[in-house]
Amino acid sequence: MTQENPKDYWDKNIDNWGKFYLESSHSDEEFNSPSWLTKLYRRLIVPIEARLMAKRYQLTMDFIERYVKPRMLVADVGCGTGIFTVEILKRGARVIAIDISTSSLEATRQNIANNVPELLDSVQFLQMNVSEKPIPIVDIAIAMGVTPYVIEIESFYGNILSRTRIFYCLVLDPKHWANRIRRAFPLLNVRKVHCFHRNRIDDILRRNNCALVERRDFASGYLDIAESTR
Questions:
Q1: C-beta separation of 82 from 97 below 8 A
Q2: Does some domain include residue 1?
Q3: Rounded to the nearest 5 degrees, what angle is found at the Cα of 7, between the Cα atoms of 62 and 5?
Q4: Distance from first CA to last CA of the chain, Å, rounded?
Q5: Which end of the chain is less enclosed by CB atoms within 10 A, N or C?
Q6: Cα separation of 211 and 121, whole Å?
Q7: Given this model, what pLDDT does residue 2 score?
Q8: Does residue 211 lie in a domain region?
Q9: Neighbour count for residue 122 (Cβ, 10 Å)
Q10: CATH number at residue 14
Q11: If you ran DSSP here, which 8-state letter would residue 150 be given?
C-alpha cells in the first residue's frame, strides 16, 4: 500500500476533521485502505476518536487561555479549519495560519469570515511545509494533530523551536498499546501516522535550547509545552 502525501490527505479530508472537532459526523473521511477496513474503522474506532477529539479541543483551549495574551503573534501550525485561529483572535492576538494544504487555508479563512470577520486583517496565511522551511518569528506556536503526519521530525521541530518562545504540540507515543498494534499490523494504520519516542523529542528540545515545561499523557500520545531557554 502506498504512502499518501499528507497534502493530498488533508485536501480531501479537512472539512471532515472540522466536524470531528465539533463531535459531528466524521463518516466521510477518506482513508488509503481497503473499503472493508474503512467501514470497520468508522464503526468501531471513530466514535472513540470523537470523544478524544473533544477532550483534545478542551485541553488546547485551556492552553490558549493560559498563554495567549493580547498583541501576541501566534503561529497556528497545521491550522486545519481554523478552529483555534478563531479562538486566538478572540483573545486579541494576531495569527499566522500555516498549513501544507490550500483547502485548510481556505477553510480557515472562511471560518474567520463567518465568526470574526472584523479580525480577518489580523491573520497572515502561509502555505508551507514546516519540515522544509522555518516559520516566521512568533511568541507562541501550536501544532495539534500535525506530527503524526511528519516524517522529518528533527527539521519540523527545529523550524519551529528556533522561531518561538513557547511551543504546544501533540506527539504519538510508539510505546502506547494502540501504536504497537499499528506497528505490528500496518494495515490497521489507516491514516499512516508516525510516532516518536519521548526521549527523541526531549533530545530535540535540548539541542534547540528549549526546556519541557509540561508533559501530559493523552490518548495514544502526549501533549507537550516547551519553552525557549535562549
A1: yes
A2: no
A3: 120
A4: 44
A5: C
A6: 33
A7: 46
A8: yes
A9: 16
A10: 3.40.50.150
A11: -
When divided into structural domains, the chain yields a total of 1
Residues 147, 134: Cα–Cα separation, whole Å = 15
**Distance in angstroms (rounded) separating the CA atoms of residues 46 and 43:** 6
C-alpha cell at 125: 496565511
Domain that holds residue 168: 6-228
Provide block-wise average pLDDT over 10 residues at a time, the chain (230 residues).
50 49 47 62 59 86 98 97 97 98 95 97 98 98 96 98 98 94 85 94 98 96 96
Q: Helices (DSSP H) in the chain: which residue ranges?
A: 6-21, 35-44, 46-67, 83-90, 102-115, 153-161, 177-184, 198-207
Coil/strand/helix, residue 209 = coil
Per-residue pLDDT of 89-135, as tens digits, reads 999 999 999 999 999 999 999 999 999 999 999 999 999 999 999 99
Q: Which residues, 6+ apart, have CB-to-CB distance to 171 below 8 Å? A: 147, 195, 196, 198, 201, 221, 222, 224
Q: Regarding beta strands 140-143 and 166-172, do their DSSP bridges make them parallel or antiparallel, or are they unpaired? A: parallel
Measure the CA angle with vertex 205, ends 201 and 206; round to 5°.
Answer: 120
Q: Is residue 93 part of a domain?
A: yes
Residue 49 grid coordinates? 476518536
What does the pLDDT read at residue 53?
A: 81
Q: Which amino acid is at 185?
A: F
Side chain identity at 157, as an amino acid letter?
Y
